[in-house]
Amino acid sequence: MVDPLAEVIALLRPRAVYSKVISGAGSWAVRYSSFGQPSFCTMLEGECVLAVDGQLPITLLAGDFLLMPATPGFTMSGTSPAVPVFVDPKAQPAPEGEVRHGRREGPPDVRMLGGYFAFDSPDAALTVSLLPSVLHVRGVERLTLLVQLVRGESIEQRSGRELVLTRFVEVLLIEALRSAPGGTAPPGLLRALADSRLATAIRHMHGEPARAWTVDELAKQAALSRSVFFERFTRAVGVSPMAYLLGWRMALAKDLLSRSDVALADVAERVGYASASTFSTAFSRYVGLAPGRFARQQSAVVSQPL
Predict the structure, then answer these.
(1) Alpha helix stretches (DSSP H) within the chain
(2) Who's near 263: CB < 8 A, 6+ residues apart?
(3) DSSP secondary-structure letter at 38?
(4) Which of 29, 133, 190, 195 has the largest count of CB atoms under 10 Å?
(5) pLDDT of residue 278 exceeding 50
(6) What is the largest CA-CA distance in the chain?
(7) Phi first, then psi: what are they for 300, rounded to 5°?
(8) Could you tell me what percentage of the chain is helix, strand and coil, using 3-state DSSP and rounding each to the nearest 5?
(9) What is the pTM of this model?
(10) What does DSSP assign to residue 95?
(11) How far apart are CA 57 and CA 75, in angstroms?
(12) Which domains does the chain have, with CATH numbers?
């Protein structure tokens, strides 16, 4: 049986971009504007307070791991009150060496290893919407080790660096997501996978996306009545079963269309459409672009010089 979580991560195509050591001493606070890209950090020592826009503040302690798949605006501070210093991560170049907040002299009160990476998926927004906006995990030593491995590999110019970093980041994401308490997660994939009945239905959707699934058939796979399955799925995921299936099919289609070696008829067949014309109509309605135009746009993006 397929693993939906692993499929989602693979489809996102994560790649490491930048990592840094961040420390703070005395009274300090920084305010970051919305970044949009995924970011992460692991606490090495001390504690600090994270206040993400629209959410309750979180106290981060040594050993904690934090992941924000789309990094909204947030404020990070020490334990003493301070006026935040504004930082625009999109406008300012990545600093060299350790980043220090607050008092410059003497040992720091808090140290963390953080960074960000990118998703190369042509449909990252849809896939990220299935994940929690803020994922906070406490006491998982493997996550700290993985972040340190990402850090070490990112600053060394060794053969195979990009491939190794890609694999490290994939493992980091999967480990973080499966370490999170799915039952208390906001509506999305993690919460649904924590429900064994719903997880069975989702695995079948991911395992056979081309099958002509109905709510009745999916409910049967989950060993639930149609009405109970529909209500339970919608509450856990945030969308109806058929809306989730359509979104996943379109995410797969976008991924296939971004490759030059897959014909339109093959894409249609792989995501459950009887003909290329039927698929084109559905894709255009969902995405706002015809499949051919979408494929050409993706080809143009890939061919642009770095």
Answers:
(1) 4-12, 124-128, 141-155, 161-179, 189-193, 196-207, 215-221, 226-237, 241-257, 264-270, 276-287, 291-303
(2) none
(3) -
(4) 190
(5) yes
(6) 68
(7) -65, -40
(8) 45, 20, 35
(9) 0.79
(10) P
(11) 9
(12) 4-180 (2.60.120.280), 189-303 (1.10.10.60)
